[in-house]
Automatic annotation (TrEMBL):
EC number: 2.7.13.3
GO molecular function, one term: phosphorelay sensor kinase activity
Signal peptide: none
Name this polypeptide is given: histidine kinase
């Protein structure tokens, strides 16, 4: 399994490594600069002392604490033992620091410089610096190397502490943002976005909210589409299956031709019903703001056509149907208008067992009322069922004036286009 990196851990480790490398590099640079400073300061003095006259083999000279000799063996014994195995090069200062341990102050320091005089003779300038015993009774101040080491260690630690503090300040709202996005739901979408302290995180939270809200809306539309489809398509699907089975049992003879035509007509009408329902559901499930182009239609002819197409729903029912229209032409989104009227008429026909159904159109106003003498359904679902909800949503989308009233065994809906 692939291990996924933590952004916070990656940032901390990368920063610590970077600071450690910089701290070590600066510490080494400080030590190198200290060594170069000693060489520069002592080198000039020792170079000038090396030109003193009166120096010969076996006759070294001591000036200002520096021993000047023409041969290495003419220098003090301690200096000879310190540098006897060194490959001495001209104009190069050799140093030897004697101390009890690495962090202890030096007990003695030996310095040696080999130069060439103008006459080509060798000169060895050396010095031995021994810490006085009285110095041990004074407060001991750490040598520069110790301070370099201390700062080299403390600097990354101080930086690390500051980094952890900053990370904790930043990680806390980031963690809160993660938990908020993880637990985002419909109720959260209705509430204002919490304050995550930083402008960038608040902007990200609004983006997350917008994206998740869109995803929830799409999921809600899909669930609504499936719920509506499974509820409303059951009847026409059952009609198709039942009549298909019946068609298989009817012999193909001249005597049964009319019966076969009636069965095929029922199947065709069920197909039209499913087509109309599917158009409605798909239209409402769209997330685009595109509206179909307006068309000029005769509203009265559209109503009469839909009533005729859906008239099969009231066959063999004790229903009194009244359709009253008047010629009226208007420019409107034809498909949504057709869907609304078809849904209202269809549901009125379907949910009325016996009674009266009236469809009245005056100008742009359409009123559909059904009354049932048999209470076979819950009052909440009387008359219009899913078609009522679909019609209401379309009317709201197109800003049509929709109104419905429910009573005992009676339901009335009106819409003004």
């Amino acid at each position: 399994m692939k291990i996924r990196l933590s952004l916070r851990l990656y940032f901390i480790i990368a920063t610590i490594l970077l600071v450690s490398v910089i701290s070590i590099a600066l510490s080494l640079l400080s030590i190198e600069n200290l060594s170069r400073g000693i060489n520069f300061g002592a080198g000039q003095t020792m170079g000038r002392i090396g030109t003193v006259e009166g120096v010969s083999d076996g006759q070294p000279v001591e000036i200002l604490g520096f021993h000047v000799a023409s041969r290495l063996q003419d220098l003090p014994e301690a200096i000879q033992k310190t540098f006897e195995h060194k490959n001495l090069e001209a104009n190069t200062i050799e140093k030897k620091i004697i101390r009890s341990h690495f962090l202890a102050p030096p007990r003695s320091v030996y310095v040696l410089l080999k130069i060439k005089t103008k006459t080509g003779e060798d000169r060895f300038i050396a010095a031995e610096r021994v810490m006085p015993k009285s110095f041990s009774r004074k407060p001991v101040h750490a040598p520069p190397s110790v301070w370099i080491l201390v700062f080299g260690v403390l600097a990354p630690l101080i930086f690390l502490a500051g980094l952890i503090f900053i990370i904790s300040r930043v990680a806390s709202p980031v963690e809160a943002l993660k938990n908020w996005a993880k637990n985002f739901n419909v109720d959260t979408a209705k509430k204002p976005v919490p304050d995550f302290q930083y402008k960038e995180l608040n902007s990200l939270a609004h983006i997350v909210r917008s994206s998740l809200a869109s995803a929830h809306e799409a999921l809600d539309r899909e669930q609504k589409f499936l719920a509506h489809a499974s509820h409303e398509l059951r009847t026409p699907i059952s009609v198709v299956r039942a009549n298909t089975e019946l068609l298989k049992k009817i012999p193909n003879t001249a005597e049964t031709e009319q019966k076969r035509i009636e069965v095929l007509d029922r199947i065709e009408r069920a197909g039209k019903t499913m087509t109309s329902l599917t158009e409605t559901l798909l239209w409402l499930s769209r997330d685009s703001g595109d509206f179909p182009a307006d068309q000029t239609i005769r509203l009265d002819l559209l109503i009469e056509e839909l009533v005729s197409d859906l008239n099969y729903l009231v066959d063999k029912k004790e229903i009194e149907l009244m359709v009253k229209t008047e010629p009226y032409e208007l420019t409107i989104a034809a498909v949504p208008c057709r869907i609304v009227i078809a849904n209202l008429v269809r549901n009125a026909f379907q949910h009325t067992i016996s009674g009266k159904v009236s469809v009245v159109q005056q100008g742009t106003n359409v009123c559909i009322m059904n009354s049932s003498q048999e209470d076979l359904m819950d009052e909440a679902d009387l008359g219009f069922g899913l078609g009522l909800r679909l019609s209401r949503e379309l009317a709201q989308k197109y800003h049509w004036q929709y109104e419905d009233k429910a009573g005992l065994g009676r339901y009335e809906a009106s819409i003004r286009f």
